[in-house]
Design brief:
single chain; extended; 2 strands; two-stranded antiparallel sheet; 2 domains; Arc Repressor Mutant, subunit A; mainly alpha
């Protein structure tokens, strides 16, 4: 059973929060170095549990909470890395081309969605997808550069596009 889950009876979220919120916040504070971020992430962890269709009974509740919190830490680090990369690109642009806060938010959300998509693809499929979609290379050009047949390139791109469609349905 994953993360010490026993699904025989529902979990009492209020009890779990009361017993483990302070501990989780401390655990997160040691990893973030910031009390405010730790408090936000601890709250997000419990909010994530509230969105579960059926709350499990946990043999090891702290292990389960840490599993959720680690995922949130990874998401936060990814978002920060994407934002920093985007801010570097923006800083290199002329002042007259700066974007509004709303546009900035939409771009960051789009970049995060693309990052989630690419993370779900194998390395070769991701490389082919980027070469075709971002670099504008043809299947033949990609095949030549990677030493693959056009059919193989098409198959990988088809897999990537199917992943896009599946993620759009979520």
């Amino acid at each position: 059973m994953d993360a010490g889950i026993n699904t025989s009876a529902p979990l009492d979220i209020e009890h779990l929060y009361g017993e483990h919120h302070g501990w989780l916040k401390g655990w997160l504070r040691t990893r973030t170095g910031n009390s405010a971020d730790a408090a936000d992430l601890a709250q997000d962890t419990f909010m994530r549990m509230l969105t579960l269709r059926q709350l499990p009974v946990l043999r090891e509740p702290r292990h389960y909470l840490v599993t959720i919190a680690r995922g949130l830490l990874i998401d936060k680090a990814r978002r920060k890395a994407l934002e920093l990369a985007y801010l570097e690109v923006l800083a290199a642009r002329p002042e007259s081309l700066q974007v509004s806060p709303e546009t900035y938010h939409m771009i960051i959300e789009s970049l995060l969605a693309i990052d989630r998509l690419l993370d779900g693809l194998g390395m070769r499929t991701r490389q082919i997808f980027l070469m075709v979609q971002l670099e504008g290379l043809s299947y033949v050009q990609v095949g030549k550069q990677l030493g693959l047949s056009v059919t193989t390139v098409k198959n990988h791109l088809g897999k990537a596009l199917m992943q896009c469609i599946l993620l759009m349905d979520d």
